[in-house]
Amino acid sequence: MALLSVLTPVLALLLCLVVGYMLLKSRHAESTSGQEAKVDSRPWVDQDLQDDTEHAQREDGREGDDWVDSSEKQDIPHVPYSATRYPEETMVERSKEFYSLLNQRRTVRRISPEPVPREVIDTVIRTAGTAPSGAHTEPWTFVVVSDPEIKHQIRQIVEEEEEVNYRQRMGDKWVKDLAKFRTNWIKDYLDVAPYLILIFKQTYGILANNKKKTHYYNEISVSIACGILLAALQNVGLVTVTSTPLNCGPQLRLLLKRPTNEKLLMLLPVGYPAADATVPQLKRKPLEDIVVHI
Ligand SMILES: Cc1cc2nc3c(=O)[nH]c(=O)nc-3n(C[C@H](O)[C@H](O)[C@H](O)COP(=O)(O)O)c2cc1C
């Protein structure tokens, strides 16, 4: 009896602690599920389209303190627009000519060291910069490298990572899928091509006052710009290797002294095709396999 009367306050205390803990836990669970529901109910981006867009919103829906306040009214004038109107036969002819030009585009892995006019490179990049972009944020930086020493350092970084990719990171299936292209981790075009264009996506913008600005759909926007760049290169008779060097982004960003909001999307060696260049004899899907008219 004496033992029971000593234990009763201890047991009561223990019981209080257990009940208190359970109450706290259930409240925490309620509040987190509430937050999730709030976030889920107003996603700012389609789940399928998620890229590295960085966006800071406070509870009141406005941006965090280091982000630009987009609730401020920004008015720009609207001006008349008209496009060149071609007769239908001319449209058909032009569409075929453009298709024929781009149908000759190939990934060429043997590039000539012959110099290319710098003005051409500047103009094809200006052309790429006409791409549409989420909220007209133009989230791209084109780094053009012609310095042989920097090109060589880029090659060293890419080859080192690519060797690990080929030997370890890629599965057997990936290596087998690439066999027909006869590629490996040796990328001499990175030394040889007169220009390397490295395209960075800006995951957010940094304004003159150091505030951050959301770059909506930056990866899609920059990919469209890259597509236009490929077409512009084809238009002037230059070739490239579309490449997305796996695991090289951070090292190349540091080498090229790009800020942390920029991430490497694509690396394009650019030049004339080498006289002895060959390409795999690939077939493109016919129209009926790629289009659905409804
Ligand atoms: C996103 C992307 C990444 C690519 N990466 C490489 C690459 O790392 N190395 C390479 O030799 N080719 C690369 N390619 C080129 C493809 O192998 C090539 O486009 C494909 O085989 C079709 O050939 P074509 O470009 O001559 O039409 C890449 C293409 C794309 C679109």
Automatic annotation (TrEMBL):
Region called Disordered, residue ranges: 30-74
Record CDD domains: iodotyrosine_dehalogenase
InterPro entries reported for this sequence: Nitroreductase, Nitroreductase-like, Nitroreductase/BluB
Catalyses which reaction(s): iodide + L-tyrosine + NADP(+) = 3-iodo-L-tyrosine + NADPH; 3-iodo-L-tyrosine + iodide + NADP(+) = 3,5-diiodo-L-tyrosine + NADPH + H(+); bromide + L-tyrosine + NADP(+) = 3-bromo-L-tyrosine + NADPH; L-tyrosine + chloride + NADP(+) = 3-chloro-L-tyrosine + NADPH
Bias (Basic and acidic residues) ranges: 52-74
Domain Nitroreductase residue range list: 103-272
Record carries keyword Metal-binding: no
Molecular function in Gene Ontology: FMN binding; iodotyrosine deiodinase activity
Gene3D superfamilies associated with the record: NADH Oxidase
Keyword Signal in annotation: yes
Family that this chain belongs to: Belongs to the nitroreductase family.
Protein name: iodotyrosine deiodinase
Lineage: Eukaryota, Metazoa, Chordata, Craniata, Vertebrata
